[in-house]
Amino acid sequence: MKNKNKDTDHISDKLISYLRDELKNSKIEYDSSLTQLQGGYETLTYRFKLNGVEGELSKPLVLRLYPQFYGTKNAVWESTVQNVLAGEGYPVAKAHFV
């Protein structure tokens, strides 16, 4: 059985590195670290909060990870639906990165 803390630490390290690169901001840190949420039929889901960012990214955030065998199709589809609904004023979460 895999060590869940080790897996979460690995995901956490990869996520913060990705966000620093994507946002061109080496000062981004976790205000609250990745904490796995219960549930999630298809995905692993984590909550977290960042320091060193502004706007919507400074609010509590959620990371959803699909298993590799799904590829990117489901994540792209889901994020598109979420962002269209958010753009129309529906009270749904916006996907910031896919």
Q: Helix share of residues?
A: 25-40%
Following the backbone from N to C, one meets helices and strands in this order, namely HEEEH
- Poorly predicted tracts of residues: none
Number of strands: 3
What composes the largest sheet? Answer: 3 strands, antiparallel
Described by the principal axes of the CA atoms, the overall outline is globular
Overall structural class, as computed from helix and strand content, comes to: alpha+beta
How large is the count of helical segments? 2
Strand content: 15-25%
Can you describe this structure?
- The chain folds into two domains: 4-65, no CATH class; 69-98, no CATH class.
- The chain contains two helices and three strands, in the order αβββα.
- A hairpin with a 7-residue loop joins strand 1 (29-36) and strand 2.
- It has helices spanning 4-23, 73-87; strands spanning 29-36, 44-51, 61-65.
- The longest helix is centred in the first third of the chain and has 20 residues, at 4-23.
- The mean pLDDT is 91.
- The protein is α+β, with helices and mostly antiparallel strands and 98 residues long.
